[in-house]
Design goal:
The protein is α/β, with parallel strands linked by helices. It is built from eight helices and seven strands.
C-alpha cells in the first residue's frame, strides 16, 4: 500500500513538472502586420461590470431558445430565465454575447463588451412570474458577489438603448430589485431641483444617451415611473432623477 501511494505521488509530481516546463500557448494570429510572437503569461479574461436585463417578446422559452441559438439571427445572451424559473446558460460569462447591440451608458458605448445579458421569458405585455423573479434574484446575487458589480450597473436594455428598445417593459419590478441591491431607486418626497438645471443635464449625469432627449425621458419613465403615461418630466420626476444621480455618485 505504501509503495502504491509513493508511486501515485511520484506520478503527480511528474505531471506538475511537465506542466511547469510546457511552453506558453501560442497566441492566435490577429494582424497581417509582421510581428515576433513573445507570449506573456500576464493576462486574464474580461470581467463583466454591468448586467443588462431584457424580455424576450416570445410566448415561451422554447421560442426564445430557438432565436438565441440560431446562427442566422446573430443574437444571444448569457442567460435565459423561463417563466417557470428554469435558468438556461447560453454563453460563457467571460465571452461577449450579442444582446445589447448599439448601446450607451455613462460615457461608454458597446455595452456588450462589458456586460452580462439576461433574457426573461416574457412577451412584454404581462407581469413577470414570481418564480422567475426569484430565480433572477438568486442569479444576480451570485453574479454581484463574483464580479463585484456596482448596484448602479444593473440596467435595462431600454436604459442603454433609448428610442430603440423598450425591454424589460413597464411590468418589470425594478423597485423590488433595487431593494435587494440590484439597481438604484428613490421614493418621494424628494428635494426640488433648481430650474436652471435642465432635464438633459440630469439624464446625462445619470448615464442616459441624450442625443434624442424624448427617447431618454421615455426610457427613464419606463424604468422609474412605469405607471405614469405622460412623456413629460414633472418636478417629482426631476427630483427623483436628481436623487438617483446623488445615489450613483455616493455609491
Amino acid at each position: 500500500m505504501a509503495g502504491r501511494t509513493k508511486c501515485r505521488i511520484c506520478s503527480v509530481l511528474l505531471v506538475l513538472a511537465v506542466a511547469a516546463c510546457a511552453p506558453i500557448e501560442q497566441l492566435p494570429p490577429r494582424t497581417a502586420v509582421p510581428v515576433e510572437v513573445r507570449p506573456s503569461p500576464n493576462f486574464d479574461e474580461r470581467r463583466p461590470n454591468f448586467v443588462i436585463l431584457h424580455h424576450t417578446s416570445n410566448d415561451n422559452a422554447d421560442e426564445a431558445l430557438a432565436t438565441l441559438t440560431d446562427p442566422a439571427r446573430k443574437v444571444s445572451s448569457h442567460y435565459l430565465i423561463g417563466r417557470d424559473g428554469k435558468i438556461y446558460y447560453l454563453v460563457d460569462e467571460l465571452a461577449r454575447a450579442w444582446h445589447a447591440g448599439e448601446s450607451y451608458w455613462g460615457g461608454g458605448s458597446d455595452l456588450n463588451s462589458a456586460s452580462i445579458g439576461i433574457e426573461l421569458d416574457n412577451n412584454g405585455e404581462e407581469p413577470f412570474a414570481e418564480v422567475q423573479i426569484e430565480a433572477l434574484l438568486a442569479l444576480l446575487i451570485d453574479l454581484k458577489a463574483r464580479y463585484a458589480i456596482p448596484a448602479a450597473n444593473f440596467l435595462g436594455h431600454s436604459d442603454v438603448a433609448p428610442g430603440r428598445k423598450v425591454d424589460p417593459s413597464r411590468w418589470f419590478p425594478w423597485q423590488r430589485l433595487a431593494a435587494s441591491g440590484f439597481g438604484l431607486w428613490c421614493e418621494p418626497p424628494v428635494s426640488p431641483v433648481a430650474a436652471e438645471l435642465d432635464n438633459a443635464t440630469l439624464l446625462a449625469a445619470f448615464g442616459y444617451d441624450v442625443s434624442d432627449p424624448a427617447a431618454a425621458v421615455a426610457a427613464f419613465k419606463r424604468h422609474f415611473a412605469p405607471h405614469d403615461a405622460s412623456m413629460e418630466m414633472s418636478e417629482t420626476d426631476r427630483g427623483l432623477l436628481s436623487c438617483l444621480v446623488s445615489q450613483k455618485q455616493d455609491g
